[in-house]
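Hey, I was hoping to borrow your eyes for a little while. No rush at all, and the record is pasted right below:
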Amino acid sequence: MEAIAGFLFSFIIAVAVGIISAVLGLFFGHIILFDSIALGIMAGLVSKNFLPVHPAFSLIIGIVVFALLFLVQKTKFGFWIVGGFLSFAWGFIITIFVYSSTGGDMIWTYVGWGLGAIFMMILHLIAKNK
């Protein structure tokens, strides 16, 4: 029985590591696809929870948002608008962690925001060239 429990525990850890690796690989390797998926999921959840629409329509809204964002980011003009905005937004998310981990030091917060936005824009440029 202990061997079976050990195997199941090892299997669960392996699956969790695989999922985490896949998400991180998608994030760092194909951030344009990751952004589109994440915003499509958020749009579907927001429409389901805050708008009076049927859950089936929420699913359609999420799929449409995903497809539109992905297609818009494939154009030259759309890439700079959406990619720039999302890099700015990811930099802001990084800023939240920097602010809370430095005890509210605003210099580190602004530096974290700038470096985070630059790093995310580099990831968007790498994904664009793939």
User: Anything to note?
Assistant: The chain has two domains: 1-74, 75-130.
